[in-house]
Design goal:
The protein is an alpha/beta fold and about 325 residues long. It is about 40% helix and about 15% strand. The protein contains 12 helices and 13 strands. The chain has a 7-stranded parallel β-sheet with strand order 3-2-1-4-5-6-11, with helices on both faces. The chain has a two-stranded parallel ribbon with strand order 7-10.
């Protein structure tokens, strides 16, 4: 079998590549390397079952032939993070919405068995209930969240109209090895790990009692694989750990001092996925606890040695547009 992984040099995508190669697939990676890193797949450099194409999903003509003869497509390629999506909405719309349109149009051309889309739990905004079910109100708070949701709607609509076999997985707070080390202020693990390496305090938003549904990346990769090989299609599933954990608890596990910075508008006090549907229909559940996941990250902490070191002052400067537009 041949699988395509868009964004396969990225954080989650590279772990999906690991899983597919382990299962005996031939894998074609499409990545423009704007945030993905070839180093994330360096351990497969001698594997003849892996091909990497430096292409952009916004250019349909350049990616079309890569999908020929493919069985499964894992669509991970996207721009992430909140602040740059506020500052550069055009880039986010063209990548996450029009890029997704290009992918589903190419999938429509070929007889592909399943397309699995990486959606975001940010579509729920500040959820009305916890744990949050798939039928919860959709309320994106910023352009990144909206663009990922519009991408999901595109995938599902093409599934409905053109009878494409598709599944959308709404991911909650993914963490683990190979998470992004550069670029804009973003995910908490990248920020904290660089701070730990530099012996700086962890910059905790608000009082740190807010909780997140931290889900380890290899569990996420397994969810994508199980979604692809299942006979189920045209469904949306939450993918979470089955629990929710405070930022203060995370700091305790990582070990270090804390400094508190202002709470940000548009951020929920809790993210917590109801995973009943994916557990019942796909027989998937997370296997790695937060304690185990943090231990694995700390064993590989040198990966973040070149990541930017954020301070309260630099975070304030980087997030001023966040407060300006969402406050």
């Amino acid at each position: 079998m041949i699988s395509v992984v868009t964004g396969g040099c990225g954080f989650i995508g590279s772990h999906i590549v690991d899983k597919l190669l382990k299962e005996g697939h031939k894998v074609r990676v499409i990545d423009n390397l704007s945030t993905g890193r070839l180093e994330n797949l360096e351990h497969h450099k001698d594997n003849k079952n892996l091909e990497i194409f430096k292409e952009d999903i916004r250019d349909r003509e350049s990616i079309e032939k890569i999908f020929e003869g493919v069985t499964y497509v894992f669509h991970m390629a996207a721009l992430a993070d909140i602040v740059p999506s506020i500052q550069m909405p055009t880039e986010y719309y063209t990548s996450n919405v029009l890029g997704t349109f290009n992918v589903v149009e190419v999938v429509r051309k070929y007889n592909i068995k399943k397309l699995v889309y990486a959606a975001s739990s940010s579509c729920y905004g500040i959820a009305k209930s916890y744990p949050t079910k798939e039928g919860n109100e959709i309320s994106p708070q910023y352009p990144y969240a909206l663009s990922k949701y519009l991408g999901e709607e595109t995938v599902l609509h093409w599934g409905q109209v053109y009878k494409l076999p598709v599944i959308s997985l709404r991911l909650f707070n993914v963490y683990g090895t190979r998470s992004r080390t550069s670029g804009t202020y973003g995910a908490v693990f990248g920020v904290f790990l660089a701070q730990k390496l530099a012996n700086k305090p962890f910059t905790v938003v608000g009082d740190g009692n807010q909780t997140r549904d931290f889900t380890y990346v290899t569990d996420i990769a397994n969810a994508f694989y199980m979604a692809a090989i299942s006979e189920i299609s045209n469904e949306v599933f939450n993918v979470g750990s089955g629990g929710t954990y405070s930022i203060n608890r995370l700091c305790d596990l990582l070990g270090g001092e804390k400094v508190y910075i202002p709470k940000r508008p548009g951020e929920p006090d809790c993210t917590f996925a109801d995973i009943t549907k994916i557990t019942n229909m796909l027989k998937w559940k997370a296997e790695i606890s937060l304690e185990e996941g943090v231990k694995m990250i700390l064993e590989n902490i040198d990966y973040w040695k070149n990541a930017p070191i954020w301070t309260p002052n630099s975070i304030e400067e980087a997030t001023k547009d966040w407060f300006k537009y969402l406050g």
